[in-house]
Amino acid sequence: MISTLVVWLVVSSTGNLTINELHRTAQARLALYDSSLRAAVDQYRYLPYVVARHHEVIAAITGTGNPRTADMYLERVKQRSGAAALYVMDKTGMTVAASNWNTPDSFVGEDYGFRPYFSQSITGGEGFFFGIGVTTGRAGLFISNPIRGDDEIIGVSVVKLELDEVERNWQEGGETVFVADEDGVITMTSRSDWKYRTLSELSPEVRGRITRHQQYPGKELASLDIGQQLVKGTGIVTINSERFLFDDKHMQGSKWRLYYLTSMDYVSNRQAAALFITASGAGLIILIILFLRERELKLASQREAREFARIQALNIRLEEEIAVRRKTEEELRGTQNELVQAGKLAALGQMSAAIAHEINQPITAIRTFCASAKLMLERGKTEKLDQNINQISALTERMGAITGQLKTFSRKSTGVLEPVDLKIALDNTLQLLSPQLQQEECTLERNEPDTPLVIQADLVRIEQICVNIIRNALDAMADSSVKRIRIDLTRTKTDVIMQITDTGPGMNEETLSLLFDPFFTTKDPGQGVGLGLSVTYGIVRDFGGSIKAYNTETAGACFEVRLPLLKGKTP
C-alpha cells in the first residue's frame, strides 16, 4: 500500500513538474514566435502610410497624373522592400496602380471594394486582413492605410505580405505552433494538414461573411472541434487522438492568437522513467520503512500531539482576536452612528434660530386669532368664530409640519437599507432647511426628472448627506453678495447623480485635497469640528457610492454625489 502510494506520488509529481517545466518553456517559445512574427509584419507595416503620401500616388488617384508613373514607383518600392505586392485603390475600391502592373495577374483595374481592409481604411483606420488573393490565389496578409487629399480620404493604399518563409521556418523547426484569426481559422501552422482548419464549427453568419469577403475561396474550413478545450488559455488538448499540452498568446496589433503545443508523449516518457526508477528502489525503501516504522510512528505521534497543541493554542488566540475585532467593529459602527446623530443635533442647534423664527410667526398669529375670538364671544358675534378657528387650525398644522420634520430628522438611523427615492429625501431636507434658507436670503434652484430616483439606502442617513452639503454651501456663501444654491438630480444607466452648486468663493487646491479628512475645517474656532463632510464621505461609501468636490468654471464650488441606481424598485 505504501509502496503504491510512493510510486503514485513520484509519477504524479514527475508529471506535474514536467508539465510546469513545459509551460515555462512554451511561454518562452511563444514570446520568441510572437516576436519573430511581429517583426516580419512590422517591417512592412509602414509602407502603406508612406505610399499614401507620395505625390505620384495622390496624382494617380485624383486623375491629375499618369497612373503608369505611379505603377513604376510602386514597383520600385516593392523591389526595395521585398513585399509581395503594393497597390492603391480609389474611393470605389477600383485598383488604379499596382506594383505588378506588367504581369499577367496584375491588380490594375480590379475591384477590391468587398475586402474588409478597404472598408477599414476608407473610413480612416488601418486595415489588417489575412486571406487568399482573389487574383493570384496566394494567401497573404493585407495591410492598408487611407490616402488623403484636400483634407478628405480619396483612396486606399495596400501592401500584401506573403508569410510563407516564416511558416517554412516553423515547419523546419519541428515544433507544433499555429496562428488562428478572430474567427478561429488557422492561417499559419507548422502542421500543413491543419491549415485552413477551424478551432470550432463556424456559424452560418461567420461562413456567410467569409464567403462575401472571399477570404478563403475553395477551402472547406473543416473544424478540429477543439475550441472549448482551448478556452482556458492553457492545459491539455486532444487533436485527432493526439494529446498536447498547449499555451497561447495574443499577438499585439492584431486579432490573431498564437498557440504553442507540446506532445504529451514527452510527459509520459518522463513518468515512465520515474516509474522505473521508483520501482527499482521500492524493495529497499519498503525494508527501511518497515525497520523504522515503529520508531517513526512514535515520533509522528509526538509531533502530532505538539502540532495539535500548537494549533489549538493558535485557534484560541485567533478566536480571541476575532472577538476583539468584532467588538472593535461594533464600537466603530456605534461611534459612527453617534457622530451622525451628533452631527444632526449640531445642525438642528445651528438652525434653531431660523426654525424658532419660523414657528414664532404662527404662534403670534394664533394669539391674535384667539384674542379676536374672545372679543367676538363677549360681543355675541359667534357667526365668524368658525373662520377664526379654521385659521388657528391651519397655523397649528403648519407648526406641526415643522416640528414633525424636526422629530423625523433627529431620530436615529435603524441601519436597515431599503429602497429610497432621493427626491423624497431631498424634499424632507429642504422642508427642514427652508427657514434657514429664507433667513440667509438664499435662492434655491432645483432641476430633476419627473420619474423617481430610487436607491438602496437609509432615508435618515441620506437626509444627513443632503443637510451636511447644503449647510456647508450656506456657510461658504456667508460673505457672498449673491446667494444661490442649484441642485441638479440626474440619472445614468447605473447611477443617480446629485450635484449641489453654490455661488461662494470656491476652494483652493489644499482645501480640496483635505476636504473629507476627519477634523479638517476652514471655519473659525467654535464654528465646527471638521466631521460633517468626513461623516458624509463615510455614509456615501457605505451605500456603494462616491462623492467629490470641485470648483465650477464661473464661481463657487460643486459637490457631486453618485449612488447606485436601484432598478425595478419603488420606495
From TrEMBL:
<feature type="coiled-coil region">
    <location>
        <begin position="311"/>
        <end position="345"/>
    </location>
</feature>
<dbReference type="InterPro" id="IPR003594">
    <property type="entry name" value="HATPase_dom"/>
</dbReference>
<dbReference type="InterPro" id="IPR036890">
    <property type="entry name" value="HATPase_C_sf"/>
</dbReference>
<dbReference type="Pfam" id="PF02743">
    <property type="entry name" value="dCache_1"/>
</dbReference>
<keyword id="KW-0808">Transferase</keyword>
<keyword id="KW-1003">Cell membrane</keyword>
<protein>
    <recommendedName>
        <fullName>histidine kinase</fullName>
        <ecNumber>2.7.13.3</ecNumber>
    </recommendedName>
</protein>
<dbReference type="InterPro" id="IPR005467">
    <property type="entry name" value="His_kinase_dom"/>
</dbReference>
<dbReference type="InterPro" id="IPR029151">
    <property type="entry name" value="Sensor-like_sf"/>
</dbReference>
<dbReference type="Pfam" id="PF02518">
    <property type="entry name" value="HATPase_c"/>
</dbReference>
<dbReference type="InterPro" id="IPR033479">
    <property type="entry name" value="dCache_1"/>
</dbReference>
<keyword id="KW-0472">Membrane</keyword>
<keyword id="KW-0902">Two-component regulatory system</keyword>
<keyword id="KW-0418">Kinase</keyword>
<dbReference type="InterPro" id="IPR036097">
    <property type="entry name" value="HisK_dim/P_sf"/>
</dbReference>
<dbReference type="Pfam" id="PF00512">
    <property type="entry name" value="HisKA"/>
</dbReference>
<keyword id="KW-0175">Coiled coil</keyword>
<keyword id="KW-1133">Transmembrane helix</keyword>
<dbReference type="InterPro" id="IPR017055">
    <property type="entry name" value="Sig_transdc_His_kinase_DctB"/>
</dbReference>
<keyword id="KW-0547">Nucleotide-binding</keyword>
<keyword id="KW-0812">Transmembrane</keyword>
<feature type="domain" description="Histidine kinase">
    <location>
        <begin position="354"/>
        <end position="567"/>
    </location>
</feature>
<dbReference type="InterPro" id="IPR004358">
    <property type="entry name" value="Sig_transdc_His_kin-like_C"/>
</dbReference>
<feature type="transmembrane region" description="Helical">
    <location>
        <begin position="272"/>
        <end position="292"/>
    </location>
</feature>
<dbReference type="GO" id="GO:0016301">
    <property type="term" value="F:kinase activity"/>
</dbReference>
<keyword id="KW-0067">ATP-binding</keyword>
<keyword id="KW-0597">Phosphoprotein</keyword>
<dbReference type="InterPro" id="IPR003661">
    <property type="entry name" value="HisK_dim/P_dom"/>
</dbReference>
